[in-house]
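Ticket reopened. Same input as before:
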Amino acid sequence: MLVSYKWLQEYIDLEGVSAEELAEKITKSGIEVEGVEKLNEGLKGVVVGHVLECEKHPNAEKLNKTLVDLGNGEQVQIICGAPNVGKGQKVAVATVGAVLPGNFKIKKAKLRGEESHGMICSLQELGIEGKLAPKEYAEGIYNFTPDTEIGQDALEALNRDDEILELGLTPNRADAMSMLGVAYEVGAILGKDIKLPNPQPETSTELASDYINVTVEAKEDNPLYVAKVIKNVKVGPSPVWLQTRLMAAGIRPHNNVVDITNFILLEYGQPLHAFDYDKLGSKEILVRRAKDGEVIETLDDVKRTLTPDHLVITNGTEPVALAGVMGGANSEVGSDTTTVLLESAYFTGGVIRKASKDHGLRSEASSRYEKGVDPARVRPAAERAAELMIELAGGEVLGGEAEADALDVKPAVVSTTLGKINKVLGTDLEMNQVEDIFARLKFETAVDNDTITVTVPTRRGDITIEEDLIEEVGRLYGYDNLPTTLPVGESTPGHLSDYQKKRRVVRRYMEGAGLYQAVTYSLTSAEKATQYALDKREPVQLAMPMSEDRSLLRLSIVPQLLEVLKYNIARQTESFAAYETGAVFLKNSNEDLPEEREHLAAAITGLWESHPWQGEKKPVDFFVLKGIVEGLFAKLGLESQLDFAKAELDGLHPGRTAEILLNGNVIGFIGQVHPTQQKSLDLKETYVFELSLKALLEAETAPLQYTAIPRFPSISRDIALVVEKATAAGDLETIITEAGGSLLKEVNVFDLYEGEKMEEGKKSLAFSLKYFDPEKTLTDEDIAKAHNKVLAALEEKAGAVLRG
Amino acid sequence: MQDRLKELQAEALEKVATAADLKELNDVRVSYLGKKGPITEVLKGMGKLSAEERPKMGALANEVRDAISGQIEVKQKELEEAAVQKQLASEQIDVTLPGRPVRTGSHHPLTSIIEEIEDLFIGMGYTVEEGPEVEKDYYNFEALNLPKGHPARDMQDSFYITEETLMRTHTSPVQARTMEKHQGKGPVRIICPGKVYRRDNDDATHSHQFMQIEGLVVDENVRMSDLKGTLEVFAKKMFGEDREIRLRPSFFPFTEPSVEMDISCKICGGSGCSVCKGTGWIEILGAGMVHPNVLEMAGYDSKKYTGFAFGMGPERIAMLKYGVDDIRHFYTNDVRFLKQFSVEE
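Engineering reply: fixed in the latest deploy. New output:
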């Protein structure tokens, strides 16, 4: 809502309160003022001039040579390029020395050999948006009405010596979508009285009810419909004051009849509509829901197909307006209109919102109806409009009105107590302070001991419960004046849950391991949603996505991380490692909400370690990432529950992929991105893993328990084994561990040889075995006993022989 | 014999003095003090001496031995020291060459902000609650006093999945769920961080996915002044002790009264600049007293219980705190962006 500071003063005395100060006060007590615009900022030296003579420029086809009376006894020659300039016009003249927007200074000039002492201005040249200028002046200079006094400041004549407060209205404050509403609000803030218009139009002896009959079928949508009839209207331009009021509020002036309806909309917040009575084609107004497929052409020349969700005004048969949104082209007021049917109606929000949304049509009227207008203003607004129709369009208002009234709206009566107010706000207010606040709001109150009962005028439909009253008290008392306290009462221990604590450990571990935390989008494309999914389920789909790329919920994080890698590698980053923790979404067939499982994923590419001047460059490989996973499990005390099993998974290198198992259950995967996929992403060798963080963090771990530091030495035995190439080191390790018995404490692979010295199809794997007895120093015989069992088991189960 | 010993001593000491390295010195030791050395040789002739002379000569021989070995020891230390010096001299490095880089990753800046806020409120007795990102219409809207058809639903156009489920548009449903879990009993003190989703085209100031962190306190005597005090603690810890806060009336369907909190602008100190759009104040969060309908729907007696709630956007806070100018940076994960947040503050 754009509020003119000058206009507002017609309703309330703002003496001593500047626009800036007012803005600050309004913001602090209820409505955010998003800006204050000085309309004549950077403009000066523009006066109203009278074009005495106008002829073609002798040397230029498109220019005119004019003689303009500036009112101070001075007559100057001005060359003007506007097509609509003409003798006798009253115009805005930027005189020599004037400054126009953009610091454009007017100087004496010679145009094609003719002197020009100033410039005749269009509204745009004076800082008014082209779309707000009246259509007839949109392409040329502006003409004042003939009675405009010359020599006066044209900016003042155009009401540009004004400041506009831009109110950012929250949906509850529909009351402030009118000048009267703002006046009430400012009155409450400043503690001042306000002056309201008191329209009393003279009426003729003829009755409106003889001209029109109003029937409302859809009474719930339209509890009150008032129609007035104004005869002998002369349609023409509005006076400057009205045009400028509208333009300052962001509405384009059209003609006096339409401008009056818009003026009332701004003043009362009550949308009005003017029909050309003669074009209605009947003596009937019928308000009903539209028929399915019914068509109306609205004032913006668009044909709109309706459904029974929409409310229409009809002439009994044909729609003549889309109720509360926009009038119909078939009944539009034009220059030849003589009889106007003026509609002032109360439509309920829901049906108007639906129509506005369905047709993508937001008008000044619909936005007010959607949020709720004051039913008590329907009649006064019609009266005020009628009064202006007489004054500005020479109309003759017929007696009474045709109407359909099923309205049942009463002011809300809400009670609260002083105790409750102080309890909720934390204040120590007295009853007279509370009474004073409601008096400033012009709410009637009745006090009974601690209880205050407030009768809330219908203009403040947002106030229905006692908390609403408390808010009024709080905001007008001033939140700055509230004491500052902290909650008292039973104390609660603040903490993270075990899960949340461990998740932080995981993040710090991953970062310590050299990975950056990424945060990517949950919504993705159909292709990526299921790629690398651990759980192959159908993805959850949005009903109405904004784009294909963000239409489904992800089942895995890896595709998003690969995008991150791709983005960075394409921007001169050679190596990058990233991880993410976040939900993946698994569709449930039986429940309505999908299962959200937190995953941990990582992706690495490029060099893992590099120290250039020492000549070290180690690219990432499977075992770099596997080491990170192993370290993570160790960090969480889950080392002994972790296993890797060779696997082939979509999108991963078939020879370099494993499943990650926790206690024998697959909870994730690790592997190299399939070379084809790498190529399509412009990535070099890239490794990824993804696992269920939920499974990891919820796994049972043994409580931390100290074990004594060994007093006896351990003894190592190294063995180099020759095995089939396909034999997995992990399997050999299992055989060794099982056969080694209780004395065998540690098994480590320390060498792998697959070179040419080996027999075809064989490889050598060397293990270091550590034997240890906590009770004594082991003898050679003790070890030999265990070690021989290991060797025998290796030969028996894996055909492994010691390398000669 | 005496002369011979003296001669040997002088001869050995000369050789010790001129020994160039440890090996030469060792040779001197072996040749003069060894079992086959000249001193031993000389002493073999002791049998020819008188009983009186014998101990004298023995003592002299020992003197000579001690003198030689003492010098050898001194010389050995010298030579060893010289060897060390020589080695050190040969082991010079250029200390200005770059060190071996330690691989480090870092927190995403949004995580830093969220964890900082979590820790701040944990210190004030709050626990951290989380909830689903795909929510029921009921928890996302209805339980928060936003019945179907409520005009305020327009404020946050949402991604629906079915008629009854959608991507949550705020983290407030976690409040509704937590209150429901507490079965109408207090106190509740929670902070709820998480991702939320709205139908917005991504641009410099909008993102269809973003973070939110909300707080909720419900108890028998929660006052609006408590909200003000809590937010002041938060603002000062988060943005600096010198910041002032102001509460401005606002509107949210789930709180009544509703406020927005501004903090004084750090950049201009309150006099007005482009960051605060000339107002001297920067909007940080929305808050209010929990609407009685919300309390009642979650099973609380709104006559007995009151509460306050507040909610803010970590992106906005990060943008203000670090001067980030485009919200999309948080989701692009450009390493040149992420790297800047590896500093622990």
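Chain B touches chain A through 88 residues (CB under 8 Å). Chain B has twelve helices and nine strands. Please confirm and we'll close it.
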